[in-house]
Structures are given as structure tokens and as C-alpha cells.
# Entry
Amino acid sequence: MTINERLSALRERMKQEGIDMYIIFSEDFHGSEYVGGYFGCREFISGFTGSAGTVVVGMDEAGLWTDGRYFLQAASQLEGTGIELFRMGNEGVPAVEEFVRDKLPAGGCLGMDGRTISAALGRKYAKICPCLRTDVDLVGDIWEDRPLLSNKKAWLLSERYTGQTRQSRISDLAAFLRSRGADSMAVSSLDDICWLLNIRGDDVLDNPVVLAYMMVFCHGGVTLYADERKFLQADRAVLDQAGVTIAPYDRFYEDLSKLPDGWTLMLDSRALNYAAVCTLPEGVNVIDETDRIMLSKARKNPVEIENLKKAHLKDGIALTRFMYWLKTNAGKTPMTEISTAQKLESFRRQQEGYIEPSFEPISAYGPHGAIVHYSATEESNARIEPRGLLLMDTGGQYYEGTTDVTRTFVMGPLSRDEKFYFTQVLRGNLNLAAARFLYGCRGSNLDHLAREPLWQLGLDYKHGTGHGVGYLLGVHEKPNAFRWKIDAGNVDASDAVLEEGMVTSDEPGLYLAGRFGIRHENLTVCVKDIKNEYGQFMKFETLTLCPFDLDGVDPGLMTEKERNLLNDYHQRIYETIGPHIPENEREWLKNATRRI
Amino acid sequence: MTINERLSALRERMKQEGIDMYIIFSEDFHGSEYVGGYFGCREFISGFTGSAGTVVVGMDEAGLWTDGRYFLQAASQLEGTGIELFRMGNEGVPAVEEFVRDKLPAGGCLGMDGRTISAALGRKYAKICPCLRTDVDLVGDIWEDRPLLSNKKAWLLSERYTGQTRQSRISDLAAFLRSRGADSMAVSSLDDICWLLNIRGDDVLDNPVVLAYMMVFCHGGVTLYADERKFLQADRAVLDQAGVTIAPYDRFYEDLSKLPDGWTLMLDSRALNYAAVCTLPEGVNVIDETDRIMLSKARKNPVEIENLKKAHLKDGIALTRFMYWLKTNAGKTPMTEISTAQKLESFRRQQEGYIEPSFEPISAYGPHGAIVHYSATEESNARIEPRGLLLMDTGGQYYEGTTDVTRTFVMGPLSRDEKFYFTQVLRGNLNLAAARFLYGCRGSNLDHLAREPLWQLGLDYKHGTGHGVGYLLGVHEKPNAFRWKIDAGNVDASDAVLEEGMVTSDEPGLYLAGRFGIRHENLTVCVKDIKNEYGQFMKFETLTLCPFDLDGVDPGLMTEKERNLLNDYHQRIYETIGPHIPENEREWLKNATRRI
# Structure
């Protein structure tokens, strides 16, 4: 079936249901950023494979909304489909809701699968459109070879890695519920569930999560709605001892619908799906509050941080050894985007405790580097020549945590622009990492540090400077971030106060379409600095350990402070990574981390 | 009557009314920052003269809450009163609401004058305390020689200054009300009223406002609740022609109480007072929305900006001539804090179109400079010696707009610390003024630019970096500001997106108690920079024209970029101010603005 045939089939179903316009979101039933195959409706209907996007299908037109990371990719993938690309954030481009309000015929009916949208957003659509059908899955209806729901195994993560028992996490949350007067809390975010229960699984590619819903009761009991066959019998017993009862995945909705009158339910309408909220009986009191588990899990505890440092040491060894191989083989050994990504993966696999990539690796050579979330295919796979820039954004899932790192490697001679911008982007990375700030600051207070060199030149990278990172969970985790745009209605969940233990990426970039792309990404952990009469000062420690390619750096463009920051970082890498690699590589590393 | 006697008398009244705890806010009935004498209840009951503070009086205890600007001043003024100082923002210091919740006896009754608190805050107290009396003014009851309400004259400000007729401003607002489905909008902010109607008055010291309430109807009519004797008959006729009807000041509440069922009233519960909202009949629909007039008046139009530049040229001439006098007379002519402030005022008075100071001038020598809002009295008035730093924060109201400027003058030899910190604070001022940023940024995205040199040293100045400034109105104006702390529930009204035409101060400082204070303040206007594929870039133009005292600058502490910024600014001052001052002063100015 071509995209056009799929659209026709969908419109046929819409007619049968009396639906004039149908929206397909990217999310699964859990608000996940990356989704299992079963939930790929948006990709199925449009052919667009990016991680974020929304498709609206009317009777005569169709559109895809996505953000700056995907403009080039989406334009290319939508070619010939008749689906118009709406570049979110660009001037004059309507939001999805505006488009729906304008284009839906008067009295027309809007349809969507209510499980694939947050309750908060669902309510917005309900306001726009009195005739809103959310009990349908029309793309599912026409998708003949739809993948099944994942039935992968789940497993327990020991306290050695988590630093806190599941009993302790549950009982903290239960105490919180009691303090708020809530009888229970409904949770659908997969990483929340895995974090609270110290379980992991394999139901979403590169995200070791378990497909489940959860209800946590104020007395400390938990119902986990998941396929019980995922768990070993021994593990089920362990969970049972911690007060965790397993119930079938779909019973979540049924149980919600049977909550008694006067029950007080806590939920986060920005996380829980709309169908779940629509299921609640009238008599249930809802406390709609920013997801408490999200706030807790973002603050990595001392055990998690010690583990993260181990994971980053391992990741740094793999990365540095790969860099040695790449730099010394450039122009000698044939290599492509895909082969270099595989080579790096092979170095990671040599590390004990490595599980899998934490996201689909990006290896983008030359002009491909300007496609922010480029993913090499057999067709696009570029041969790497001994010149220009290779942008590699990769990461790993280790028992000791999740890594995410981008290096832009110099494969040979650079143009003056390539070197100039390589250095400017690096200045932003270094200045943000060196921030010292009073407790209470949010990422939006500091984002400018990374962006300033580019903004002074009238340039920008059109994406956030950094995202929170999970612990052996999603590589993109709320609520901390480095972004300058503030979501005024949702500050605490999208731009939280930076707390001790929060892990955030620092990844400015520059993308010149058709020419090249640059990104320099390290992970940072927020730690306490001095405390005095002015308050508690905070700073970042850089977790990632891999040299920035000095062949791309023009020291004359940097301030003395910036050069010192780079030199200190490189010295640390030499001292920590050096002892773990063969001598010839260590010799090379000495030069790769030389003072400039 | 001593403060202790006043407190006793108040507690007597509280007993009579069955009130266990009484709160006295700083505000008048209009949420003004500075208030007329009639509204000085908080100062009357506590003796604290700062512009911001809240007093809570219980039967056995009393407290004053104020912010970092006033810690030293309040501690000194509260001495011996038995009123405890609560330093807002310091660790472990409860908010007023928390204190009330904790200390109010169970079932106890809380009292306040509901006209002196915003509806939003009033509702918070109503939640905390079921027994809330807001129909009392107990301090007024015991205040025998209370000043009368101001009866000063009001006058019309011509289009030459405002750039827009009152008809046009009213009709824009009426169209907005219709677009929102509102029948009318209730307004109590004095500067909103003056801005919309192009009127000015003299009812608050240094703030040329008219004591009034206002109702704006969606068909374009306006009721101005004010003493009609304030206006010349001819001016009343002009207002009448613009659809503005004058009604008695107090009738505002009566009219609100008579709004018919089904009436849709727009108001901003963060601005309108609680008593007004309590007056509304049940059947009135309220649209509670961020004050539209505030948002409009913050964006100065081209005529206002041209006028502002004229005002700042005049102010710059007065300042520069004063600086010449100060620097050439230091150590030769006796001078004090008060005499220097008067001298500067005398230079301002020589400028055509100068009306009055825009706030009570600060002239603070040596250790007094560390008291952020120090105000010299006959008792405290320090003699200025030929050494150390003199901090002067002053401003003027001109027909062409409002100015606000701080210079820290070097009176003779400095300590190494004085020069070091003088330069660090200046770096912050220069870097913020030179920001270039994408449209959509708020002040909180940029505040760090000013604070960074101090935060790197583990220091801070504990106040915002900058505030919005009115046009011949309040010198502190919302919604734009430079602050790093985000009020998550009120972002758009306290930390608005920086729009073309917004005027904001840039005033980092450093205050070392008992030693010295430094502040460098310029006003900036936000303007458009280049627009390209990345978006609309914005930047600031500095309005203030007066040299920073180079005797305090250590160029070795500055980057080359920072030195260039200072040199460029100084060159502009020489070129713009130079032609307007006598030759010997110009010669001096040439040296005072030399390249470093």
C-alpha cells in the first residue's frame, strides 16, 4: 500500500464513522517519545519516520506538523504523498489546533484515538470542537499487518544500581499521596513506572521500559497493569512482597471506570492519556498535579551518580578508542556513515554492563550533518572522504546508566567556515558547562550561555540546548532542560529548577543546509557549589569523557577563559581514560588532548 | 504616638472587632508601588519607610516582611519597636501566608483592608483563613492626623508626547474587549488609566498619576471615577468628547455592585483590588486576564521613543555637567549626600520640559552605598570625603518621558576591592546591554549576562537586574524586567517576552555591608535587529547618556570585547553630549570618555 492508498482507505473509514477530520499523534498510550512498532500509526499513514510529528487528515487535504530538527527529513519523506509539511515555530505557520479550528467544517466531527494524547491536550480539542470522537483507532482499522504489542521480558534492577529499594520509593510516594489527601495516583508514563518499581524491560526500541499502566495507593499498595508473562515467577514473587499486584494491561481503563464515588485520584493531565481521564466516573475527585515521580526520578541519588560516572568512564573509553581508530584510519580504510556507527557500537559492546544503544545512532557526513536527526539508510549511506566533518550523536544503555554524546570529527582539511563555526559552537558548550549560579535557576536562565556566540553572529540551532537524561531509561527525560523558550503555562514540568543530581545534556550546534553540521554534546550533572550569605551556589560537572577534535578548533577565536576550560577538560580525559587504553592509543590521546 | 503605642491602639481595635491577626500592606487601593500620604498605613504602624513591605500584627507578636533591598534599612528602622524583621527570600524565612497559616489561632479571624490587596492575593488568604474580614481599615481608625486623599490637579498630555490620541487608545481597547466577548473592563491601576486617557496628575509623589478608577465599555465609552474638580472645565469637555464621563471616585464600588446579571466583565485579578471583586454580584461573568493596558503601554511607540531620546539627551547633559562639577570639586568644595543630590537636581531643573524627580533620589556615600534603597536624612547625611565611592541613583520626569540612572562616582583614591568590584559590576552592565537574541526571549533568559561576573566570584546583588520604565509614569513598570527568578504562575505579567519599544533598566550592583556599594544603571530600549531564516533578532539600544567613571575601571579585568563596548558607549556620549556643554566641560568630558 502506498501512502496515497493508505490515506484513501483512512478517508473511507472516516466517512463510515461520520468523521470529517482525523488526527494521528506520534505517541503511544503512555506519552512515550519513542514508541513500539504497534504504535507507529503516524509513520504508517505518512511515511515520516521522525520521532515527533502530528498528521491531520481532512477529506481534501492532509498535513504533517514537525519541529526544526526534522524539516529537511520530513520534506524529503513527504514528497509525492500530497501531505503538506507545516514547519512548527516558523513564522505564519499555524499550530495544529489553529489549523483544525480553521479547516474543520462548521458542525464537523473531529476524530482521534484518545489513548494517544494527553488529557490536557485532549481537553483543548474538546473545546475547539464540540463533536470530538476519541473512541476510535481508524488507522489501526486499515493497518492490516500492524505489529503486535511487544511481549518482551521484563526484569528487576537491583539496589546496587538504583540506590533505593522499590519499597522505599513506593512508600515515599504513598506518604506524598496521603499528604495531599489523595487515595491513589494513576500513572501511565512507562519510565515513571519502571523507576518507581525498579523494573526494566525491552518494549520500546532503545528504551528499556515495560509496557504497563500503574495505580499507586496511598496505603502503599500498587497495581501494575501489564502482561504478567513478562515477568519470571521469582520476580513476580519479589514484586508481590513489595506490595505490587499484577493485573492485565487493558484492565487499567476498567478499574478507572469503577472507582467509587468520593475517591480522590491524583493524576497529571499532561501525562495521563485523555481516554483514561474520560473513563473516570463523575463522582471521582481529581487532583491534577505535576507528576511527582517525574520530579523524583530526575534527581539522581548518590548511588546513581556514582554509577553514572562508571558508565561514562566505560563510554568514554569506547568513544576515545573509536576516535583513535577513526582519526588514524581516515583516508586509509574505506568507511561510511553506517560502518562508522557500527564500529563505535563494537567498541561499546566491549564494555562490561553495556546493554544497547540509548537511541538510534546518528552518523552524518558532510551535508548530512545539517539534517539534525539524520539517520543513515542503505540508500543515503555516504562514503566518508578524508576531508570535512563527520557528526556522530550516539549513546548507550548501561546497567550503570544512560549516556548520550555528540562529537563532530574532523576527517581531513576543513574550509575556513567549518573551522570557524566548529569553534564558535564549542565556545557555547564550554561556557554553559562552566556556569555557576544560585540555586533556583532554571535551564532557561542559562541557555543563553551556549547560544550567545551564534546569536551574536545572527545564527541559531533551532533546537533546545539540552534535555534531561534518565537512568537506564529514556535518553530524553523531563522536567529539566536547557531551553530559552519558556512554556508559560507549564514551567515546572518543562523547565524545572535545576536540582542537585539532575543530568542534562549540553549540546549546541549549527546546521548549514547542503553544507555541513556541527554539534558538541556532553552530559552534565548539577551539583552544589559554595553556600554563603547570597545563597546556595550550584554548578555542573561534566560526565562525558571524550576529546573534542582539536583539528577543528581555532584557538584565536576563543577567550583565555574558554581555552582554559577546554584544556582542563582535555587534561581530565587524558588522566581518566589514558590508563584504560593501549599505549599507542594513549600516545595519540596525549596529543589529542594537548593544551592549546 | 510611638510605634509601640500605635500597635497597642491597633490591638485594642482588633479586640473590639474580634480580629486575631491583622495585615497591613504597602499598597494603596490601586496596587501602586509608591503611595500618597493617605495610604501610608504600613509606614504609620511600623515606622519602616521603604517602598515595599507587609506588616502582620498578632495579639502577642508583630512582623515586617521586606526584600533584600531593604534588609539593612528595615533592621535599623524597626529597632525597639518589637516588630520582628522577616527577610524575604532568605532560607528558612516563611512567606507572610505561611506565617499567618501557622500563627493564626484555630478558628481565629484575620483582618485586612480589602482595597489594599489584589484580588488574586485576597483569594489566597480567603483559602487559608475561612474567617477573613476585608471590610475594615483598623489602622485608619486609630490614625488621628491621617493625611487627606490627594486633591491635586490633573491635566491632559498632548499627542505630541504620547504619539496616539486617547480616542485611538480607547477604541483599540474596546475592539479588544469585543473580540473577547467582554462588555466592559474594570481598571484600578493608576498608570493604566493615565496612559489610556492621556492624562497626568500629581497624586503620588514623583509619579504623575491621577487618583481614579476606570470602567471601559466595549462600545468605546469610559467612566472615569475621580474627583471632577481635578480637571479644568476645558479639559473635562475634551474628555467628554472622547467619550469619557467623570463620576465620583467612590462610586466605582457602587457601580460594580449594580452590574446586571449576565454582564461579562474583564479584569486582571492580579491588579484589581479584592474589595472590588468582592463587590461583584453573583450573576456577573468574569474574564480574568493579564491586564491588556499594561501590555500595550509597555511597548513605547515611535513618537514616545523619539521623545525618550530627547529626554535622555537632556538628562545626560544635566548628569554630565553634574559629574564635571562633582569630580572637579571633590576635596575642594564641602559636599554631603544631600547637597550632591540637590546639586544634580539643580542641573536637571535647567533642562526645558523637566517636571520633577521620578523617585526619591539616592545619594549614598561609602558604607551607605551598601544600603540598596538608602535615603539620606538630616541625621544620616554623610560628608563626602575625597576618597571612596558615591552611589547616586536618580531620575527625572520630563514631558518627553521618565529617566532613571545610577552612577557610582569615584571621589578619590580607591581600595583594591573597590576598583575590582566596580569593574566586575560594569562588565555585567555592558554585556547585558550588548545582548543580541531571538524574538521570544524574556528578561529571565538574559539576566545571567549581567550577573555572571559576580556569580563566578560567589557574589550576588540580591535584586532584579532591571525593571520596566513608564513614559512620564511610574519608574517601575511591568511586565518586562531582567530577573532570573521566574514566577511560574505569572510569567507573562512579570517576565514578559521582550517586545520592540519596551524600556528596561540594566542595573547590576554589589553591596558589601559596612564597606561600600556599587551600582551601574542605564535604561535600554528593545529594538529589532536583523531578521533571517533563524527568526527576528532583537537587541537593546542604551538610552542613558552619562560616562561611567573611568577612575573606577581596571581595564585589565575586562575582555577586549567589554573594553570596546565601553569605549563605543563613551564615544557616543562625547559626540552627543559634548556639543551641549561649555568648552571647559567638554575638554574634561573628552578625557572622561577616553578609550581604555
In short: The interface with chain B takes residues 91, 435-438, 440-442, 444-449, 455-456, 458-460, 462, 484-486, 488, 491-492, 495, 529-530, 532, 534-537, 559 of chain A (CB under 8 Å). The two ends of chain A are 57 Å apart (CA to CA). The first helix of chain A runs from residue 3 to 17. Chain A has 20 helices and 28 strands.
